């Protein structure tokens, strides 16, 4: 019953996404209506996903986390899409903001699809780990795209903070190797959840540290390059675990 409600509400959200994209070329009123509708739908979707996660029972917290992460990704993508829609409102079709809007819409649909795949996999214990890992790989790729963008972080942090965050990558790597050896679904799901947080924290800390006032342009470029290389290497590790 939760699955049906999630599917129905997710379908409505995809329709809202279409209205948001088309709303950029129409009146402010239509755009506001589309934004309000999508906000209402994402709230409903979050509620039914949380109910679905609760129905799994407290003996499977890692799978509950996988579901909650999936709806978080959809909510973040919707927020980015609304921002891109506002930026593209009343702009000509060849304006760069229109390309950003199309990119944001694509990410939105990808994340809704990922949520639906995750919901389906939750019902089949044999595929839970695989799906959790696939979702984490997609999430890390999206985080890497943000990391590689020219957008300057809102705040900066010290290089020490960046170094501290790399410890999470070391722990997640050990967990991933162990999961690849055991091939137990619960180990793979735990790895997916840990990897997601470890890489996101590392990328955020690395970018914030690279924009610290005391950091030179040369050091910034190197830090950002190594952050990218570390993430690509970790993605390769997760792909291997998925293969195994």
TrEMBL record:
Keyword hit for Manganese: no
Main subcellular location of this protein, as a coarse class: cytoplasm
Top-level taxonomic group: Eukaryota
GO biological process terms held by the UniProt record: actin cytoskeleton organization; cell-cell adhesion
Molecular function GO terms recorded: actin filament binding; integrin binding
Pfam families attached to this UniProt entry: Talin_IBS2B (PF21896)
Domain Talin IBS2B: 8-119, 129-241
Alphabetized UniProt keyword annotations: Cytoplasm
Keyword Repeat part of the UniProt annotation: no
Localisation per UniProt entry: Cytoplasm
Record's GO cellular component terms: cytoplasm; focal adhesion; plasma membrane
Signal peptide: none
Transmembrane residue ranges: none
Protein name in UniProt: TLN2 protein
Organism: Nothocercus julius
Gene that encodes the chain: Tln2_0
């Amino acid at each position: 019953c939760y699955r049906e409600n999630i599917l129905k509400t997710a379908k409505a959200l995809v329709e809202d996404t279409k209205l948001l994209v088309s709303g950029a070329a129409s009146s402010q009123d239509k755009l506001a209506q589309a934004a309000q509708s999508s906000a209402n739908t994402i709230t409903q979707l979050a509620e039914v996903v949380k109910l679905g996660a609760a129905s799994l029972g407290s003996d499977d917290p890692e799978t509950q986390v996988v579901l909650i992460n999936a709806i978080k990704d959809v909510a973040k993508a919707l927020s980015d899409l609304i921002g891109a829609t506002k930026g593209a409102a009343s702009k000509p079709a060849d304006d760069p903001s229109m390309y950003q809007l199309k990119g944001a819409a694509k990410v939105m649909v990808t994340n809704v699809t990922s949520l639906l795949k995750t919901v389906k996999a939750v019902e089949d214990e044999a595929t839970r780990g695989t799906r959790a890992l696939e979702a984490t790989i997609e999430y890390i790729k999206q985080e890497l795209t943000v990391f590689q963008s020219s957008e300057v972080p809102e705040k900066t942090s010290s290089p020490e903070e960046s170094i501290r965050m790399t410890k999470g990558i070391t722990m997640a790597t050990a967990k991933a190797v162990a999961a690849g050896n055991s091939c137990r679904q619960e180990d793979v799901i735990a790895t997916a959840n840990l990897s997601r947080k470890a890489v996101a924290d590392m990328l955020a800390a690395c970018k914030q540290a690279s924009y610290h006032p005391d950091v030179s342009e040369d050091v910034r470029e190197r830090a950002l390059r190594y952050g990218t290389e570390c993430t690509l290497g970790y993605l390769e590790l997760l792909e291997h675990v998925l293969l195994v």
